[in-house]
Design goal:
6-stranded antiparallel beta sheet, alpha+beta
Length: about 170
């Protein structure tokens, strides 16, 4: 997804996150996809991965601190040979969970020109933001993201370049 990073940046404006995992099962889509990626990093895996980060390097120390409170990062991405190999109905199980009370859609982008659609949802709870879910869809590509656990969304870009997460150039306010 060429613009997913842009929409993740938009979500960074929202606040901080304690936990709310969206559950999904997309084995059927993975079977139809030409390529698929499944990233499942639960809390213990994230803590293990941070042991390889240096506390001496400023950037790595920020990432280490940011990841310490996360309960999970979950990403599913599918590339299809032809448009139309997945439908909106294939996404309904995921969407149904983020349409329940407490979830709020903060970004919705639809491009009729190139068929790209992006939705970003936040789970609002009494302590603040309780979850983040992203649906990024193009005619031949589909990506779903769920980040679980307390996190300062302004610092989310610090994860870029680590754990297989692409770097997103974000200009931060001083």
């Amino acid at each position: 997804m060429k613009r997913v990073g842009l929409w993740i940046v938009a979500a960074m404006l929202a606040g901080s996150l304690p936990a709310q995992q969206v559950k999904w099962n997309f084995d059927r889509l993975a079977a139809k996809a030409a390529n698929s990626v499944d990233v499942t990093l639960d809390g213990s895996t994230l803590r293990l991965a941070t042991k390889f980060l240096s506390g001496q390097d400023e950037d790595e120390a920020k990432v280490k601190k940011l990841v310490a409170g996360l309960k999970g990062i979950y990403v599913k991405s599918f590339e299809f040979k032809n448009a139309g190999e997945y439908t909106q109905a294939d996404l309904e199980g995921f969407r149904a969970q983020v349409r329940t009370p407490g979830w709020e859609r903060i970004v919705g982008v639809q491009s009729k020109e190139d068929g790209e659609n992006v939705e970003i949802y936040l789970k609002i709870d009494p302590k603040g933001i309780g979850g983040l879910a992203i649906i990024a869809a193009e005619p031949k590509e589909l990506t779903l993201v769920n980040i679980v656990g307390p996190i300062d969304l302004d610092s989310l870009s610090d994860l870029g370049g680590h754990f297989g997460i692409p770097e997103v150039d974000v200009e931060k306010k001083k």
